[in-house]
Amino acid sequence: MASLTLLSCDPPPLVASAAPCPPGMVLVEGAGQLGLDAATVRILPPGPGGPADAAACGDAALCWLQTDLVDPILKPRSVQLAPFCVDAWPFPGAGARYTRDGMTAWDAQALDALLRGGGLGGRRLCTATELQAAAAGLRANLPLIYGQRADLARCDGHEARAGRVEAPIGVDPGCVNPETGAGEYFTRHAHWVVADAAFVEAACESPPCRAAGNRPLRPGMFIVLGGTGRLATRQLPLSPHTWHDHGAPAPAGCDDMGHDDQPALCADPDRAWRAPTPALAAEVARWQVLVDEARSSGSMTRALERGLGRAVCPAAPGATGEAPAVSGPGDGRGAPVPRGAPTPGRPPPPAGGPPPPTGGSPPPDGSPPPPSFSAPGAPAGGG
């Protein structure tokens, strides 16, 4: 894998976990139902945005102000899942703020390649069914992570809608699924996952399924699961029972799309976490380098570049190397973060590092892995 520089040769010992999961993750398993009856949602034409949206929804338990493009609602289906671990709170964790630049499909592919290279505590992108189960619960199959009715004052997603800077992740300790212990997913942001075969079979009424991106859904594609805290969107708001497709990973425009979708991280259970070794502690320390970068810089691009040891996006021919600023999604997340811009007081990520390891197989999306890029001033590698 691409090397991450640690400040200490001896990572602190890890405390044994009650669950066979990496630190900060919860264990989910079982069988049950996942999905939502669309008849339970009040669907309205697009509104003007802001408080007027909530007023239009009245006393509806779930309300959706649809836009000109609409994503599917996931109908109820029977699911049985092997045990898996999922982050209890979305990346970069409780007490931090979501990255302001979020992730594109190209970023999702780069993160997937980095994680599959190993050495980061067994983490991987969640499958769509896993994250849906973590947020809804396989026994209760809740329409929202915290219950049956939308409450726009919960989880502090209303801060963004009101044009204020978002509160830290986990500020509402009750914003969790009581069955799984996973918190806050889809109350503010949607999350990048990998489409699994069971999900693909049930992702719409008439397969092959297409979301607003109009690309036929197939297993292995990087997609965005769930809604967001915005009521007027392509996806059903606030709920895990919807999905969106941003298209195939491509370097063109990867540095200026401005998606605010966040990653969803899972892992396979391992009994070693109940008595972690120094080697596991070292993997956790490597992962923490990425987490700390995301927390301090507010940039997913900076975190990815720290892990990859190179730029995420290729430089355009004749480019000066200055990254264009990304406009925020327009819902008050604060000042935009230039994708790949250096953070004050920190050196830029090393240039021309090795390409992300792929474990000898192509990314699950079926597209080529992110190329390695040349040092500044030299022609960009890859294509």
Q: SS-based structural class?
A: alpha/beta
Main sheet strand line-up: 1-4-11-5
Could you name the ranges where pLDDT drops below 50 across 5 or more consecutive residues? 5-9, 316-383
Strand content: 5-15%
H and E order? EEHEEHEHHEHEEEEEHH
* Radius of gyration, in angstroms, nearest whole number: 20 Å
Distance between the termini: 22 Å
Task: Give the overall pLDDT as a whole number.
Answer: 79
Number of helices: 7
- Name the helicity range: 10-25%
Biggest sheet overview: 4 strands, antiparallel
Q: What oligomeric state is this?
A: single chain
Record field, number of beta strands = 11
- What is the approximate shape? globular
Topology:
Elements: E1 25-34, E2 42-44, H1 51-57, E3 63-66, E4 77-87, H2 105-116, E5 123-125, H3 128-136, H4 158-161, E6 191-194, H5 197-201, E7 222-225, E8 232-233, E9 243-244, E10 262-263, E11 265-267, H6 278-297, H7 300-308
Parallel strand pairs: 2-3, 3-8, 6-10
Antiparallel strand pairs: 1-4, 4-11, 5-11, 6-7, 7-9
Helix pairs in contact: 2-7, 6-7
